[in-house]
Amino acid sequence: MPRLRTSAEWIIYFRANNAAWEHIPWERGAEISLDAVLPLLRSLQAWQLGETSEARRLKAAARRHAEATGDLDFITAMDLFILEEQRHGESIGRWLDAVGAERIRRDWGDSLFRLFRHARPDIEVWTTVVVVIEVLAVVYYSSVRRAIPSPLLKAVCGQILRDEIPHLEFQSERLARIYRGRSAWRMRLTSAIQHALFAGITLVVWMAHRRMFVAGGHSFATYWRQASQQMRLARLRMRTETTRRATTQRELKAEPPSRLEGWLH
Fold this sequence. Notes:
Helices cover about 70% and strands about 0% of the residues.
């Protein structure tokens, strides 16, 4: 299995990635009318809202975890991760500005996820939910690229997609560290809870953004299949030597999570 990177290594990655962000041609404008995107606008507005959280509770949970484990670099690494997510939200927000749409301040889906995450401010719960959201973000932004013929938005989504796979790796590797030393029965329970969270969140996101996914060429079956594929790859990175679960030849041949061929079109 791939080596788990240290928090210090992730800090180096996030800082380098921030400096290497590709130029987004904001000067060209949206190159599409507001009326043309109106049927899909609410979905983008809601997703943009979800990307702009200040993440105060997540930062607090990360700090408690870092202090408990002695991995103080994790605090900085998490801060840099959150900054990238906020940058994604700001980029979608700038596109909304360019097309003449407002940025909303409230959405039922966003409120539901915040309520759930706040119910138990534990780093494992937070990270598990973030992994599922990152998985669905890969499917979502690839759908947006196909659904809305705006060169500016395609450029924004392309950059976001290039960030999302490393984000998945960062969070999945943290869960792998948390799972170290966990007994077999506790791992079975953890896996069951994780599958339930994935199913619940994936269904809620489909209900909230079905119109965007369908416009991007998805049926529920293809949406579920692609989300499940990405989640399976994330789970491979969560495995540690203590999970005592055999890795099959099929899994070893699976496309590594750092690859994005098939999504950036």
